[in-house]
Amino acid sequence: MLPTLAKIHRASWLPARLMALTLFAVSLPACEPDVPPERGETVVRSEEALPSGGWQVLMASGGAPIRSITRRSDGVLLGGASTGHGITVWASRDNGATWSVHGSVVSNPAVEFGDVTMRAIPGTHTVFCAFREFANGQFRVTVTRSDNDGDGWVYDSTVVGPVSRFVGAPFLFQRANGDLQVYYDSEPLAEQGGYPGHQWIAMQGRTGTTGPWTAYGVVTVSRDKRAGALSREGMATVVQLGGDRLMAVVEGVEPFATGGARANIINAVQSWDGGRTWDDSLRRTVYQSRIDPASGRRYNAYVPFAIRVGNGPVGVAFCTDEDKAGAPDLSSSPPDQRNCHVGFVSTTTSFETWSAPSAVWTATSRNYTPGLFERAPNDVIVVIDTLGGNRVLRR
Hints:
Blueprint: H1 10-13, E1 21-27, E2 56-59, E3 69-71, E4 77-82, E5 86-92, E6 100-107, E7 112-120, E8 127-135, E9 138-146, E10 154-163, E11 167-174, E12 180-186, H2 187-192, E13 200-205, E14 219-222, E15 233-242, E16 245-253, E17 264-271, E18 279-287, E19 301-308, E20 314-320, E21 341-346, E22 358-361, E23 368-376, E24 379-385, E25 391-394
Parallel strand pairs: 1-25
Antiparallel strand pairs: 1-2, 1-24, 2-25, 3-4, 4-5, 5-6, 7-8, 8-9, 9-10, 11-12, 12-13, 13-14, 15-16, 16-17, 17-18, 19-20, 20-21, 21-22, 23-24, 24-25
């Protein structure tokens, strides 16, 4: 049986309740705005890693979004969280310090919802919400829309599905020219490309924010093309590096086994043309955990979330089991059975080099899906799903 990414197990393990989450925040070192480089030019800046111990608890418990946060037209922060058979909207009127329920996107006892992401369209009252649906043994990626700042929601479109192979974990991104794009995990794309059992990142986009998701075709964003490599990638987040230069950061598994097993690792790839094509020469391993000397297996790094901080470095929060006692968890284990602390890395002298990791959250060992949001220049909050009925936020 091929190793699987942890997140595809959500279809079977996600309980019909709000998952727990911790909220934190931190002020990161300021960086001078960079000028978008020409293709092939090295970007040199002074970018420091987050100092160890720099994160402070902002909200120790309570409800909040899972992973994705956006800011609507009046400054209120919004995000969503799956309850299993529904999606709850959460809102914060104090810049992320506290959260309250702000309605519901959708509810259906016959459908299991997950992988919720939101994006507000600047200068409008429109907010999009994308998510994965699972019903009758089939998956689809669905988009809903609010035209009144998240107060009410209507069906917008289906991006892909229904299909029996896994599609999910959508991420909404708006290109510099205004086009709305959806990045998502796709087993069908890999199978159609001749690699059954693999999973690649796909992208579909619109011209502007309305209409069919056909403006770009179906783009293969991230996959490992080396001979014999297993390429299972998912949980993409996308950031703008300057103009139409983009970076996608994704979860993957080791393309070649270490110690007889394949651990989760984090990869990145870049585009120079707004996501139409992706440059494999700039594909990098963002982070891979250490190898356990006793078992010979590598520890895991998974469910990354990337943002561009202060128009400077790209920061990535992720889960890892590398400081647990004993052998690494299997990458196929359900998230609520894995040991996890939350770490952070950032780009250094270029967008192709990465810092050593620092700790964000080590107080509990059952965590999942950290999400980052820059609420003011160089002022970042992270929201962590602690898998126990509450959220924890840090700054």
